[in-house]
TrEMBL record:
Residues bound to NAD(+): D34, F35, E36, F37, D38, S83, L84, E114, R137, E174, K289, K313
Protein name, per record: DNA ligase
PANTHER family: CHROMOSOME TRANSMISSION FIDELITY FACTOR 18, DNA LIGASE
UniProt keyword list: DNA damage, DNA repair, DNA replication, Ligase, Magnesium, Manganese, Metal-binding, NAD, Zinc
Function comment: DNA ligase that catalyzes the formation of phosphodiester linkages between 5'-phosphoryl and 3'-hydroxyl groups in double-stranded DNA using NAD as a coenzyme and as the energy source for the reaction. It is essential for DNA replication and repair of damaged DNA.
The family this protein is said to belong to: Belongs to the NAD-dependent DNA ligase family. LigA subfamily.
One GO CC term on file: cytosol
Length: 818
């Protein structure tokens, strides 16, 4: 490489790294894996070493990757927040160990090893035992003040009690979103039609930067602490500091250990390689730190990293597997997600059978052919992904994967909007998973709160055509008698291509006999799967005889079954029997086989055939037919369900508005709109200008609101819901405004107030028509300046030209003081 080439490559690498840093830290997105990113950085560092004349101070190799954001107050860190050197190789770890030994001139040192938690770094400053400030890493020198958001994290101590707590100290740790919470949020986002969060780290980072602490509180962030800093903390070693943190009530992950040499470190690394997947959060490696503080001082820092610590990162594990097929899942918003079904392989501690393929572009990018051998990798993501195709192993004559063009659930032609990666099923109203999604959203705890309606029950009601829209729920009451005995699953049934209804052998045999358990019959049938039916029937007679229970009666019934089967001329299906034949054996004296066959062509369960025919059968016959059915809706379940549906009519307007599932209207927006317009009719009439004038309402939302009310079917649903007594107006009993003296004003209070506690001032401002903002910004009308308002906030307010008024002036303004 010539110096010119090196210079050009350094520039190119710097640009790329800056771009990915920006995505990662500012936008909480990634386009390449951490491994790929670290490779770019490593290449840059090596080139700069070789050509030091091209090393510039702005190089990303010299700087911590993050920056500060505009929306928050910023402060300068007392101790800089640095990055860590990292490596993926054992040789480099040994080289690090040698450098430490060389730097110290001896090998008399120990390492403290911790897992590397994949979250967001945070610094907490305590004064006189009180948490006074929480700051992000930012650019390493200065960071964003996110105290209010951090205070919502339950296990962060706000006060430290005990003896010998230093007057001032700083604690650092990693804020993370537990994997379970992450999955929960994404499930909800999917149901609401919102974009999914990429991984828990990005989600945690995005959450921390939210303006509304109330939303942050709902996200259940958590934090692990790993560093204590300060002038007089009275410890000389990291392990002592960690024990102090534990004693003071900080959440320290109990995964650390002390190592006497690098071999022990390797042992620690390998012992966590698989075990780490059992942790509640993502981890991506191990951090080893020289334990002794004096030794740390001797070793010092480079521009960006300490010389006394390093991170060893686990490389995402990968394995080969075979692509068996692709399943196309239809999401609750109609989005299609292709999922690869793989031959099972062991990867990162679990057996992997499926991998996400995201969308059609991804399949194209990979160039997938049917039956390909693929590389599967499990990194920070929850679902493994396919990283490439092993071309040498491609089967001769295999064909490229062709993306589907029809919805696998409802057969509608799929659409793909300009600029969107995903295909969608546009059959919003008739596609079963989309109906299910909307009804699940409607009954959700935070919407209509009908918890007696779980997914399985809703699904049953949809499939058996009792509901197709949430307004139908309120008409179930009239159909209560049909619901009794409704079958919850249809797994035991099969339809032949020409529409005949079949039932599985065990269920049929169970209903046809007496004194034999379903479990023993199932065992028998397992032995005879895929045998010719006549052979199975012969053997079943033997089975009855060996069991010696009601032999004459049971054998008689099976003989009768054989007779009717022979004369019926119905098609056959392996391991199944025609439902009308079995029913005919059980209740033949009431109805002809022809009528039963006819009814079964249009129905999907025994329950619905019985409803349709309305036969005068005896109690005993009913009991025998029940043995054919799957689990059924019982009296208790039905009354419970109907009670929940009835009670939901009391939900306030804002919940109803949220439950309607208007695109982009989340819980908070529904609340804002309900409080603003008071009635659905007013919301419906609202013009674009009126809507945009409301804080928090943007153009996308206006579009969805207008589109929603333009659809006559939606209007009809609302009308039906109104007839059933749901609330489409704010209750008169709901708290009315105390006054309108602050109408339209945006206000912030800072520092300590005398007349209000923190939350009281917010309620007070809102009760008088104003709006409380959580951060200093240009859009504020004024700031109420309390005692000890932070100097940096004040400075920012002055810079932006926001007026400051005293608490007394404020009280006068609202007429509470003359
Ligand atoms: N994929 C991308 O596009 C992309 C872009 C930028 C950065 N990244 C990745 O993000 C990382 C960013 O590097 P970085 O400078 O933030 O360094 P880093 O995240 O690799 O290491 C430093 C950080 O580790 C954290 N940490 C976790 N557990 C710790 C423990 N037990 N002790 C001490 N610190 C602990 C701290 O927050 C600290 O700030 C890189 O590893 C890179 O792979 C990826
Ligand atoms: Zn569909």
């Amino acid at each position: 490489m010539t110096p010119e080439q090196a210079k050009a490559r350094i520039e190119e690498l710097s640009n790329q790294i800056n771009y990915h840093n920006h995505l990662y830290y500012q936008e909480d997105r990634i386009e390449i894996s951490d491994f790929e990113f670290d490779k770019l950085l490593e290449e840059l560092i090596n080139l700069e070493k070789e050509y030091p004349e091209f090393l510039v101070p702005e190089s990303p190799s010299q700087r911590v990757g993050g920056t500060i954001t505009k929306e928050f107050e910023t402060v300068i860190h007392e101790y800089r927040m640095l990055s860590l050197g990292n490596t993926y190789s054992e040789e480099e770890l040994k080289a690090f160990d040698d450098r430490v030994a060389k730097g110290l001139g001896h090998r008399d040192f120990e390492y403290f090893c911790e897992l590397k938690f994949d979250g967001v770094a945070i610094s907490l400053v305590y004064e006189n035992g009180k948490l006074v400030r929480a700051v992000t890493r930012g650019d390493g020198t200065k960071g964003d003040v996110v105290t209010e958001n951090v205070k919502t994290i339950k296990n962060i101590p706000l006060h430290i009690k005990g003896q010998n707590v230093p007057a001032k100290f700083e604690v650092r740790g990693e804020i993370f979103l537990p994997r379970k919470e992450f999955e929960k949020i994404n499930t909800e986002r999917e149901a609401n039609g919102e974009a999914l969060l990429a991984n828990p780290r990005n989600a945690a980072s995005g959450t921390l930067k939210m303006q509304d602490s109330a939303v942050v509180a709902k996200r259940r962030l958590n934090c692990y602490f790993y560093q204590l800093l300060g002038e007089d903390i009275g410890v000389n070693r990291h392990d002592e500091a960690i024990h102090l943190l534990e004693k003071w009530g900080f959440n320290v992950s109990p995964t650390y250990t002390k190592c006497n040499n690098i071999d022990e470190v390797f042992h620690y690394i390998s012992s966590w390689k698989e075990k780490r997947f059992e942790m509640p959060l993502d981890t991506d490696g191990v951090v080893l730190k020289v334990n002794d503080y004096d030794q740390r001082e001797e070793l010092g820092f480079t521009a960006k990293i300490p010389r006394w610590a390093i991170a060893y990162k686990y490389q995402a594990e990968s394995a080969e597997s075979e692509l068996l097929s692709i399943t196309y899942q239809v999401g609750r918003t109609g989005a299609i997600t292709p999922v690869a079904n793989l031959a099972p392989v062991l990867l990162a501690g679990t057996t992997v059978k499926r991998a996400s393929l995201h969308n059609a572009n991804e399949i194209e990018r990979l160039g997938l052919f049917e039956g390909d051998t693929v590389m599967v990798e499990k990194g920070g993501e929850i679902i493994p992904k396919i990283t490439g195709v092993v071309l040498e192993k491609r089967k001769p004559g295999s064909k490229p994967v062709v993306y589907i063009d029809h919805c696998p659930e409802c057969e509608s032609p799929l659409i793909r909007k300009e600029g969107e990666a995903k295909h969608f099923c546009p059959n919003f109203k008739g596609c079963p998973p989309q109906i299910l999604g909307r009804i699940e959203h409607f009954v959700h705890k935070r919407a209509m709160d009908i918890d007696s309606l779980g997914t399985e029950r809703i699904q049953t009601l949809i499939v058996q055509r009792y509901i197709g829209n949430f307004a139908d729920l309120y008409e179930l009451e009239n159909k209560a008698n049909q619901l009794l005995g409704l079958e919850m699953s249809q797994d035991q049934y099969q339809k032949s291509d020409d529409g005949y209804l079949f039932i599985s052998l065990p269920k049929a045999f169970f209903a046809l006999t007496e004194g034999l358990s379903l479990a023993s019959i199932q065992k028998f049938c397992e032995r005879y799967t895929e045998q010719p039916l006549w052979e199975v029937l012969d053997n079943f007679e033997m089975f009855i005889r060996t069991n010696n229970k009601k032999v004459a009666q049971n054998v008689g019934t099976i003989k009768k079954l054989e007779e009717i089967l022979l004369s019926s001329h119905l098609p056959q299906m392996e391991d199944y029997l025609p439902v009308p034949v079995v029913m005919n054996v059980l209740i033949g004296n009431w109805i002809s086989l022809e009528k039963l066959v006819e009814a079964s062509l249009h129905e999907n369960t025994v329950h619905s055939i019985l409803l349709k025919l309305n036969l005068p059968i005896t109690r005993e016959q009913e009991d025998r037919l029940k043995k054919m059915k799957a689990n059924t809706f019982q009296e208790g379940v039905i009354s419970n369900m109907l009670e929940g549906i009835r009670a939901s009519k009391e939900q306030p307007f804002e919940k109803v508005l949220f439950a309607l599932g208007i695109r982009n209207i989340g819980e908070n927006t529904a609340q804002i709109l309900a409080r603003h317009f008071k009635k659905i009719d007013e919301l419906q009439k609202a013009s674009t200008e009126q809507l945009l004038a409301i804080n928090g309402i943007g153009e996308t939302l206006v579009e969805s609101i207008h589109a929603y009310f333009k659809d006559p079917e939606n209007l009809e649903t609302i009308e039906r819901l109104k007839t059933h007594g749901l609330k489409f107006e704010v209750d008169a009993t709901e708290k009315p405004l105390e006054s309108e003296s602050l109408k339209g004003m945006k206000i912030l209070a800072s520092g300590k107030l005398n007349h209000f506690k923190r939350d009281e001032i917010i309620d007070f401002i809102e009760a008088n028509g104003g709006q409380y903002l959580k951060a200093v910004s240009k859009s504020l009308d004024f700031i109420i300046e309390g005692e000890d308002m932070g100097p940096s906030k004040k400075e920012k307010a002055e810079k932006l030209g926001v007026k400051l008024i005293s608490e007394d002036e404020f009280l006068q303004m609202v007429g509470k003081k003359s």
